[in-house]
Amino acid sequence: MRKVTLSVIMIALLVITLFSSFILTGSPVPSEAVAFDTGDTAWMIVATALVLLMTPGLGFFYGGMVGKKNVISTMLQSFMAMIIVTVLWIVVGFSLSFGTTIGGIIGDPTTYPFFQGVGTNTTWSLAGTIPFMLFALFQAKFAIITPALITGAFAERIRFWAYMLFMVLFILVIYAPLCHMTWHPDGLFFKMGVLDFAGGTVVHMSAGWAALAGAMFLGKRKVQKVNPARITYVLLGTGLLWFGWFGFNAGSALGANGLAVQALGTTTVAAAAAGMAWVFMDKILGHKLSAMGACIGTVVGLVAITPAAGFVSLPHGIFIGMFSSVVSNFMVSKFPKGKIDDALDVFACHGVGGMVGMLLTGVFASKEVNSAVADQGLIFGESTLFINQFTALVVVSVFAFCASYALFFIVNKITTLRVTEDKEELGLDISQHGEYL
Asked: Which of the four pLDDT bands, split at 50, 70 and 90, describes residue 383?
């Protein structure tokens, strides 16, 4: 019965999409083209491609960490996010995220359905030097990687079709409202003065809390301790993530300008400092210097600097990277793995890293770095920003965790989330896809 219900839902979505695409025409083109900045446009095209590269990079990063029987399935979860979320974003996701505000919480879905009005000769209000469509496609890549980040928490035990249904609901119910509240000029957090340069709340905190909810709902794997299938994949994935993250953070300046260079600099030093701090912490705790540790630490630094990248100085970026790495390392070592099986430590790294970055943005944000900063951080003697950052952190945490848990519950009622024990033992590569390394 559940299989029939899921099939009906999928077919209905496809029919609605096809029907709507025939009814709706292409984006209207103004009679007079806007004069865009060619340098900004060129940089943002590159940045958009860099951010997309992060998702297959994440696939390598996660795929190398799981057991050999689950490599393909784990990597495919990231790849399918590129496919499903891209279409969903065009159809309605962008409207929900950046459409005319409804109470500062979410966008009107009728504003830009199927990219209606999202043209190559129009602009977004906060990105006046590049085509509107380029801004919308840049934002699509952020939406793509967010549900992919969650997959590390329930790796090796989730049914693939159930994951895809959850991914769709997550974008519509959780990601879109957070994106609207944080980055739309009429959004609740935006008007509060909350600073999130490239996705501390929207991407990493939402993914981290959803990951924790998923790990709790699905329960523990039958065998929790497995040898990583390909540590070389983890190294490759880390390199691709770091490379793509320059588009993620520096691209969020929305132009080829000094702010983009600042974000590039803070991203570079935070990642390096965090990787260094992680391996030093491992040494202090009596562990060997490992490739896995260096990679995980580097990614934690990238996560933590994301909300602060365009608001803090390079020395403060180093501190953010090192401090977040130490905190996440401690969380990984103390996380109750016997009770909650967050397979690849998504919450401890992305969730906690995002929260640390958000709070430290409220400590170090500076008007000298970014003139758009209305209230400076605690270190400059002002407290308003820190209070706003903390308030947003609490609201996002409660919303993302509770809503995600509810979505897992709903999806499980439609189609079983977890594979059976025999299929888990066989491995998801074979049981879900009929493929193997």
From this structure: very high
Residue 254 — left, alpha, or beta (φ > 0 → left; ψ -120 to 50 → alpha)?
left
pTM here is 0.94
Q: According to the model, what pLDDT value does residue 58 have?
A: 98
What gap in Å lies between CA 214 and CA 208, rounded to an integer?
10
Residue 310 maps to a domain: yes
Q: From the centroid of its chain, how far is CA 24?
A: 30
Residue 356 lies in a domain: yes
Distance from C-alpha of 386 to C-alpha of 301, rounded to nearest angstrom: 20
- Those residues whose C-beta lies under 8 Å from the C-beta of residue 170, and which sit 6 or more positions away, are 146, 147, 150, 210, 404, 407
- CB-CB contact of 182 with 239 (8 Å): no
Give the gyration radius of the chain's Cα atoms.
Answer: 21
pLDDT, mean over the chain: 93
CB-CB neighbours of 414 under 10 Å: 18
CATH number of the domain enclosing 166: 1.10.3430.10
Q: Is residue 28 part of a domain?
A: no
Distances (CA, A) of 408 to 11, 166, 404, 423: 21, 7, 6, 20
